[in-house]
Amino acid sequence: MNLFLDDRKDAPEGYICFRPENLGTFYHLARHCRGVISMDHDLGDGYPEGYDILKKIELEVQQGKMWTEGAPKIVVHSENPVGADNMRAVIRSIYKMVGKIPTYCKICLRPVEPGDKYCSSCE
Fold this sequence. Notes:
Layout: E1 3-5, E2 16-18, H1 23-31, E3 36-39, H2 50-62, E4 73-76, H3 81-97
Parallel strand pairs: 1-2, 1-3, 3-4
Protein backbone atom coordinates (compact mmCIF):
# COMPACT_ATOMS: atom_id res chain seq x y z
CA MET A 1 0.00 0.00 0.00
CA ASN A 2 1.37 3.42 -1.00
CA LEU A 3 -0.06 6.66 0.41
CA PHE A 4 0.06 10.11 -1.19
CA LEU A 5 -0.85 13.24 0.82
CA ASP A 6 -1.30 16.50 -1.07
CA ASP A 7 -3.85 19.31 -1.22
CA ARG A 8 -3.72 19.78 -5.01
CA LYS A 9 -1.77 17.17 -6.89
CA ASP A 10 -3.22 13.84 -7.94
CA ALA A 11 -1.45 10.69 -6.82
CA PRO A 12 0.72 8.71 -9.20
CA GLU A 13 -0.55 5.31 -10.26
CA GLY A 14 -0.29 2.77 -7.46
CA TYR A 15 -0.91 5.30 -4.67
CA ILE A 16 -3.98 6.08 -2.59
CA CYS A 17 -4.54 9.85 -2.70
CA PHE A 18 -5.42 11.74 0.47
CA ARG A 19 -6.41 15.37 0.79
CA PRO A 20 -5.86 17.28 4.06
CA GLU A 21 -9.53 16.90 5.01
CA ASN A 22 -8.93 13.12 5.18
CA LEU A 23 -6.05 13.22 7.68
CA GLY A 24 -7.76 10.84 10.10
CA THR A 25 -7.90 8.09 7.50
CA PHE A 26 -4.38 8.92 6.34
CA TYR A 27 -3.01 8.51 9.90
CA HIS A 28 -4.86 5.22 10.35
CA LEU A 29 -3.46 3.74 7.14
CA ALA A 30 0.01 5.23 7.72
CA ARG A 31 0.23 3.23 10.96
CA HIS A 32 0.09 0.02 8.93
CA CYS A 33 1.87 1.15 5.76
CA ARG A 34 4.75 -1.03 4.57
CA GLY A 35 5.03 0.58 1.14
CA VAL A 36 5.72 4.25 0.40
CA ILE A 37 4.33 7.40 2.00
CA SER A 38 4.71 10.47 -0.22
CA MET A 39 3.91 13.80 1.43
CA ASP A 40 3.70 17.48 0.53
CA HIS A 41 4.70 20.18 3.02
CA ASP A 42 2.16 22.91 2.23
CA LEU A 43 -1.31 21.41 2.62
CA GLY A 44 -3.42 24.55 2.42
CA ASP A 45 -4.92 27.08 4.79
CA GLY A 46 -6.47 25.66 7.93
CA TYR A 47 -4.54 22.37 7.81
CA PRO A 48 -1.32 21.28 9.47
CA GLU A 49 1.83 21.30 7.37
CA GLY A 50 3.49 18.08 6.31
CA TYR A 51 6.17 18.84 8.90
CA ASP A 52 3.56 18.90 11.68
CA ILE A 53 2.13 15.59 10.52
CA LEU A 54 5.57 14.00 10.57
CA LYS A 55 6.22 15.42 14.05
CA LYS A 56 3.03 13.71 15.25
CA ILE A 57 4.16 10.45 13.65
CA GLU A 58 7.61 10.89 15.19
CA LEU A 59 6.06 11.21 18.66
CA GLU A 60 4.01 8.05 18.15
CA VAL A 61 7.12 6.18 16.99
CA GLN A 62 9.01 7.47 20.04
CA GLN A 63 6.20 6.24 22.32
CA GLY A 64 6.24 2.81 20.66
CA LYS A 65 2.75 3.24 19.22
CA MET A 66 3.72 3.14 15.56
CA TRP A 67 6.15 1.33 13.24
CA THR A 68 7.65 -0.88 15.92
CA GLU A 69 8.75 -3.36 13.24
CA GLY A 70 10.23 -0.80 10.85
CA ALA A 71 9.12 2.28 8.96
CA PRO A 72 7.97 2.54 5.37
CA LYS A 73 9.80 4.57 2.76
CA ILE A 74 8.85 8.24 3.24
CA VAL A 75 9.16 10.61 0.29
CA VAL A 76 8.75 14.39 0.41
CA HIS A 77 7.41 15.84 -2.84
CA SER A 78 7.25 19.49 -1.83
CA GLU A 79 8.12 22.54 -3.91
CA ASN A 80 8.97 24.31 -0.62
CA PRO A 81 12.71 23.63 -0.09
CA VAL A 82 12.81 24.89 3.52
CA GLY A 83 9.72 22.89 4.49
CA ALA A 84 11.05 19.83 2.69
CA ASP A 85 14.39 20.10 4.48
CA ASN A 86 12.61 20.33 7.85
CA MET A 87 10.55 17.26 6.95
CA ARG A 88 13.69 15.38 5.96
CA ALA A 89 15.17 16.03 9.42
CA VAL A 90 12.09 14.48 11.04
CA ILE A 91 12.23 11.51 8.67
CA ARG A 92 15.84 10.89 9.65
CA SER A 93 14.86 11.07 13.32
CA ILE A 94 12.09 8.51 12.75
CA TYR A 95 14.48 6.17 10.94
CA LYS A 96 17.02 6.47 13.76
CA MET A 97 14.34 5.49 16.28
CA VAL A 98 13.36 2.39 14.34
CA GLY A 99 17.03 1.51 13.99
CA LYS A 100 17.46 1.94 10.25
CA ILE A 101 18.42 4.92 8.13
CA PRO A 102 17.76 3.90 4.54
CA THR A 103 19.80 5.28 1.69
CA TYR A 104 16.61 6.57 0.04
CA CYS A 105 15.96 9.26 2.67
CA LYS A 106 16.09 12.13 0.18
CA ILE A 107 13.74 14.91 -0.78
CA CYS A 108 12.05 15.77 -4.05
CA LEU A 109 12.27 19.40 -5.03
CA ARG A 110 9.84 19.05 -7.91
CA PRO A 111 6.25 17.87 -7.79
CA VAL A 112 5.51 14.24 -8.44
CA GLU A 113 3.70 13.97 -11.76
CA PRO A 114 0.89 11.48 -12.38
CA GLY A 115 2.52 8.35 -13.70
CA ASP A 116 5.83 8.91 -11.88
CA LYS A 117 6.57 6.21 -9.35
CA TYR A 118 9.12 8.48 -7.67
CA CYS A 119 11.05 11.45 -8.89
CA SER A 120 14.61 10.73 -10.01
CA SER A 121 16.17 12.18 -6.85
CA CYS A 122 14.29 9.69 -4.65
CA GLU A 123 15.41 6.42 -6.18
